[in-house]
Amino acid sequence: MTRFMHRDIAAALGLLIVGAYALWEAREMSVFGAIFPQLAGAGMVLGAILLALRAAIWIPDVPQNDGAILRPLLMLAALASWAVLLPILGFVPTSLIGAGACMLIAQQDPLPLRTRALHFAGLATLVVSVAFLFGYLLNVRLP
Predict the structure, then answer these.
(1) pLDDT tens, 74-94?
(2) What is the C-alpha R_g of the chain?
(3) CB atoms closer than 10 angstroms to residue 79
């Protein structure tokens, strides 16, 4: 696989276009209303640059597909369940359950109990931080 045919180049280009568009559209918004689009757009542009740099430096071996479909289907079911439960349970409980389920589905090797507890503590901190950011700083009402 050549450097210009690398699969991450297409993803980097897509991120760059969407991020640049978000930054462009944020120009017309109020100062407070533009905070989230500017933050998201800048994050996407930075991510695109890092992804393109990684693709230019490192070409990974393409893993062979073993035909396992169960894990992607379980992940899809977890995400669909998150979307269904969000208006019923609210953002924080649904996100904790959904992200915890996704972590367990994605886990390939057994982890010690302490490591698993630290992962879930970090997950809970992230979910509560996002809820606080949207609810109190950005004044976006979450279910």
Answers:
(1) 999 999 999 999 999 999 999
(2) 19
(3) 13
Contact at 8 Å (CB) between 104 and 115? Answer: no
Tokens of 83: 């979307």
Burial class from Cβ neighbours inside 10 Å (0-12, 13-18, 19+) for residue 2 reads exposed
Tell the residue number behind the tokens 């991450």, with chain if given.
8
Q: For residue 28, give the amino acid letter.
A: E
Residues in the chain: 143
Separation CA 101–CA 111 (nearest Å): 15
Residue 109 has pLDDT above 80, yes or no: yes
Residue 58: how many CA atoms within 13 Å on its side-chain side?
A: 7
DSSP state of 5: G
Taking the whole predicted model, whether its pTM rises above 0.85 is answered as: no
